[in-house]
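Input sequence (442 aa), recorded before submission:
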Amino acid sequence: MTSTVPPASPGPALRSSRKVATASLVGTTIEWYDFFIFGTAAALVFNRVFFPSVDPVTGTLSAFGAFAVGFIARPLGGAVFAHFGDRVGRKPMLVYSLLLMGAATVGMGLLPGYDTLGVWAPVLLVTLRFLQGFGVGGEWGGAALMAVEHAPSHRRGFYGSWPQVGVPLGLVLGTATFAVLSATLTDEQFLAWGWRVPFLASIALIGVGMWIRLGVHESPVFRKAMDEKAANRMPVLEALRTYPKEILLAAGSFLATNSTFYVSSVWLVTYATQSLSYDRTTILAANSVLSLSDIPLIMAFGLLSDRIGRRPMFVGGMALLAVFAVPYFWLVSTGSIWLFLLGGLVVQVARSAVYGPQSAFFAEQFSTSMRYSGASLAYQIASILGGLAPLLCTALVALTGSLYAVAGYVVGIALVSMVCSWLMTETLRSGLREDTAAVART
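Predicted structure, token format:
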């Protein structure tokens, strides 16, 4: 008599990896939704709601300036959350960052405009945007590390790509919400109250995110480090002292990916609708489609990095971006939505080659006791210049009158990121750094 053995089910470690990756994905989706709807509103209505006393160009610059404040706050939030994330744990920081983001976003939805509060309206808007940036500054490092540190060693690129998918999903959710409102409301209704709906909807999303995040366990790698008393008293300062080269190169490797994301998802919404006669709803729908295409690309490139390495993905993506920058803006300038989509898809491929394996690549550069600090600092340093991109693009076109000035800017930052990526150390085979040095210092 032959006995049959049922197929083996995934072990507890694999199930835990999937659960944590899913929780990271949902949480980052909600946080980035909150962060991105500000950019869409800045491109469409904030110049008229909060900066109506100046001419349209200055109003747009002011709205994008308020948008950029969130990126100035991100390194500060990243440093504070990283300090406690490396000392207390990854999970608590993810909960606190989600709460802070939600409170700031709902506050924006309730904030009266310039006609009611006068100059206090833009002041309060900028304050809330600062709090948004502070909260999201702590989000990425915690979500990325939870996914990577729970992942099997041969699948860190793949599982690390899950929280990365939260970015396009958050953008899709936010842009699609604005697209539906834009298509169903009159311009007067949209300006009066319609733009507030996506901000107030964050209340429900934050509740879902909190429920999911409170159900996951702390990173086992971090727990082990705490058991070995490997925590530093000042992990951010220690990371800057121990890993200055790794932090700067990682930040530089991400510069173009981060900057061009905001060029296409924020600045181009304004330029395409105001200067190229694209329909507002059509552009919002096109950006939603492009963001959806990001999801399989990011996960595929994360998985591919587990086979061929992280650095080749980064270098190849930035080389493609540098070569394609001028053709991309030519396609955009034709006024054809189909050519707009074609150009956007190629740019998405270039960026996804970096964004897919980024969580694993950055995490593998630093030891456990300084990993949150090192990875977050690198990510958020790049985010400062990324957040300034819409402002810089507006200024470049105003000064030169040419869209190709923006193309030149993209080529320049793509080359910087390509060189930084080339100079980084490949980590596919070496894996996560151990904490022997940190233990010896304690």
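Checked by second reader. The CA atoms of residues 19 and 216 lie 7 Å apart.
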